[in-house]
Design goal:
about 210 residues, alpha/beta, 8-stranded mixed beta sheet, globular
Length: about 210
């Protein structure tokens, strides 16, 4: 990241997270400035690209936006005509910002590692942008997402490319494919940030895990 006021949270703080309580503290303080200071300031493309990948794969609503944050991916889905969309996130402050975008039917505060309090098979689509990355959530959350999805539901989950192998996503998706829990997995690689981004992570990429639940 570019030099910034030390009082303001930033990407290095997010990548250094270790526990759910750490996440709650960081995002409580970041929620009100996240869209302007980070998303706009760092030319954050990933939410829009994840939404486009989901729609291009034939994704339809109702959709669960996992780790929705301030609602950038949901806003992009809405602009593409996809809905209805529900948001879930660990941070109530981020969800409050998401609600202001008027893209969501409902918001659900939840820690993915504890499960998502929704009916089994409630969604025909599941998206996630920026949640499966350094300091955040690993593949241990995938069963909770699959539980929330109906048969043949379309998924579009962004996974930081540097995080994919190291955090065990490759092995997890292989197990899910072999166990016939998911099908039609593809992994297009996309830039996370646009040309205005600065700092050590400006060239980072994400794999968009596109697949369907069996």
């Amino acid at each position: 990241m570019a030099p910034m006021d030390k009082q303001k949270p930033g990407l290095s703080d997010a990548y250094a997270l270790q526990t759910p309580s750490d996440s709650k503290r960081l995002y409580a303080g970041w929620a009100s400035s996240y869209d302007q200071d980070f998303a706009a300031g760092q030319d954050y493309l990933l939410p829009g690209l994840t939404a486009k990948a989901f729609a291009a794969a034939g994704g339809k609503g109702p959709v669960l936006d996992v780790g929705a944050g301030t609602g950038l991916c949901g806003q992009a889905l809405q602009a593409l005509g996809v809905g209805p969309i529900d948001a879930t996130d660990i941070s109530p402050e981020m969800l409050a910002e998401a609600l202001r975008k008027d893209a969501y039917r409902d918001v659900i505060e939840a820690d993915l590692l504890d499960g998502i309090p929704v009916p089994r098979g409630a969604y025909r689509g599941v998206v996630s942008s920026g949640t499966f990355t350094h300091g955040h959530v690993g593949p241990e959350a995938l069963p909770a997402l699959l539980r929330a999805a109906a048969p043949d539901a379309q998924f579009a989950l962004s996974v930081n490319a540097k995080h994919y192998e190291k955090a065990g996503f490759a092995a997890a998706f292989d197990r899910l494919l072999r166990g016939q829990w998911i099908k039609s997995l593809t992994l297009p690689e996309l830039r996370i940030y646009g040309p205005r981004a600065t700092g050590d992570h400006r060239d980072d990429t994400a794999l968009i895990a596109l697949f369907q639940k069996v």
